[in-house]
Amino acid sequence: METDGDPNCVLWRHPNLLYSKENLTSPLTSLNSEALQAEALKLFKCVQLFMSVCVEQAGIDYHVVLAQNALQQCLEVHELQDELCAALARQTAPHTHTKHAVQVPPAATPRRLRLRPAKLTSVSASTHQHQHQQHQHQDPRWV
Question: Which residues does the UniProt record annotate as the domain MyTH4 (predicted)?
Fold first, then answer.
């Protein structure tokens, strides 16, 4: 495809490929039941939550549980696999309205890398803290 490397190509500006900090109102893919559509929206929220807060040692278990539950759900409900891929494509698209960066010490080795958003709002920090405290009592993929 001739436009693969061109960031100005209209294909890369399709609404389904643009990063969103807002919740979805409808799934990114076609799903044939309202129950699957509701699960798809919850799956997108899970991806947003996972990607919006920094991964620190104290919260790593919570992040692992979020990822495991999302993947397990997609293994059990095959219709959601395309939805997860679409959500990941959308949320990893380059965006300028929220700057995230990987902060790496100059001589970092792979085991020392820590991923942190450059800017974490107090709302998402307090939401993460509240949800992290309750993750043992509540299924985290539905937060």
Answer: 19-143
